[in-house]
Sequence to fold (225 residues):
Amino acid sequence: ELKVEQNPLFLSMQEGKNYTIYCNYSTTSDRLYWYRQDPGKSLESLFVLLSNGAVKQEGRLMASLDTKARLSTLHITAAVHDLSATYFCAVPLGTYKYIFGTGTRLKVLA
Amino acid sequence: DTAVSQTPKYLVTQMGNDKSIKCEQNLGHDTMYWYKQDSKKFLKIMFSYNNKELIINETVPNRFSPKSPDKAHLNLHINSLELGDSAVYFCASSQWGDRGRETQYFGPGTRLLVL
Fold:
C-alpha cells in the first residue's frame, strides 16, 4: 500500500527564515502535486511536478521532485506570515486515485 | 465563476438521520472525487468517478452512497449518520490521464457535525 509521509508535521518558524518540508512516498510515481490549505478553507493547487528532476518556483516557494529517491521537497525562502497554512503533497496511485501526505502545518511568526 | 461548488457548507444533524451533499464542477473534467478530512486534517479518498462511472470505492461503509447523474455532478448521500461521520467532506475534480491537467480542483468543503 502506498504511504506518503511528510515531515515535519508541524513547523513554527520566524519570518525571514528558510526551511524545507519533505514528502517521501513508498512506491514508484513519476509525478507529484503540492497543495495549500488555509485554516477552515479548501485546498488549492500549488505545484505540479511531472518528471524526475522537475523544479517549480512561485514566489518564496520552490518544489522539486526526485523520483528515484521517491522524495519531493518544498523549500520556503525568507518566510512571511502569509505563508502560514497546511501544505499537502499528493501522489497518484494506479488509476483515478491520489494518496495525500499527512500534511505539514506551518506557522510563520512575526 | 466557481469551479467546484458544494452544498451545503455546514450540516449539523442528529445521529441516525440521513443527509445529502451535492457537488458540481464547471471545468469540463471527466473525473470527480469525494474526500473525507478528519479532525487531524488527514485527507482520505472515498470515491472516484469517471464519466459517471464509479471507479474507486475505498472500503467506505455502504451507508455512504455516491451518485453521479452526469459528468458535472457528484452527490453523496449518507444514511444512518454516526458520530464518527463528523468531518469535512470535500468534492474535487480533475482530468485524469492528461498529465498537464491532473491537478485536482477542490470544492469549499461541507462541514458535517453529527450530534
